[in-house]
Design goal:
Helices cover about 10% and strands about 50% of the residues. It has about 110 residues and is mainly beta.
Length: about 110
Amino acid sequence: MAADAGFAGIVTMSMAGTTRQMTLSAPETAEGTQGTTVLLLSPLYEPQLLSMHADGMIVRGWQRVLNDRTGKNTPGATYLQEWVLTLVAQRPANMRELNAVMATPLQLVQGK
């Protein structure tokens, strides 16, 4: 079995109604789409933290694959998935920037 190279993106945890969801997205690169993001994977629903270590974590949840054959993006099969997340961050340019990042509390954002 070949190793999956994975994806590089931004992981976000939010609420979709009463359901927790985790998404992996990246900034849109097409011209005229500044400030928008594109999902790299289908959302992971009801994610649970299985383990955490120095440079990452493992999260388990339910992932629903969209059925693209219908052309309507209707929900397809649902699978139990585990995401292995490796934490990567850019180094701040200076200590002032680092202090600003560290002072910002983490927030759970209500989904649409």
